[in-house]
Amino acid sequence: MMLLKLAYTYVKSRAMAEDIVQDVFEKAIEKESAFRGDASYKTYLIRMTINRSYDYLRSWKYKQLSITNTIAQLFNSETPEKNAILKDIKAQLGIAILKLKPKYREIIVLYYYEDFTTLEIAKFLNIPEGTVKTRLKRAREQLKQKLVGMKGVDFDA
């Protein structure tokens, strides 16, 4: 499920994300001997998923599709009024996240949705941990700018 969510954050299509994950598992089985064991197998699969997602984003097929999906719900709520407000916030936040550049979007998703540490993300993406922290900070700033003035959102609290 984690790989599916990860692929989805890039391609924004559940069907395409499922295809990517299937391709990743097929390649992992086909090229089992290529796994060197430098990192965990989980890290290996995550890297393969990210690479395959980038391949898809560079493809002509992707360039012909439009973005129509949003990220899944973030919060649970109790009252109908709160549900309505949170639904609106979630939709706007999801849209704002999808509008981020992929290098920022992947950090946000891995950190907040998949609960990985900055060190784990750095290993997955093969970049320094400081770069992860910088991208996370910039992504937060960009999200804040996109969401300023949104009803029900208070950044000073």
UniProtKB/TrEMBL annotation:
UniProt feature coiled coil, ranges: none
Keyword Hydrolase on entry: no
Superkingdom as given in the UniProt entry: Bacteria
Occurrences of domain RNA polymerase sigma factor 70 region 4 type (ranges): 96-143
Keywords: Sigma factor, Transcription, Transcription regulation
SUPFAM superfamilies named in the record: Sigma2 domain of RNA polymerase sigma factors, Sigma3 and sigma4 domains of RNA polymerase sigma factors
Listed CDD domains: Sigma70_r4
InterPro entries: RNA_pol_sigma-70-like, RNA_pol_sigma-70_dom, RNA_pol_sigma70_r2, RNA_pol_sigma70_r4_t2, RNA_pol_sigma_r2, RNA_pol_sigma_r3/r4-like, WH-like_DNA-bd_sf
Protein name (database record): RNA polymerase subunit sigma-24
Lineage: Bacteria, Bacillati, Bacillota, Bacilli, Bacillales
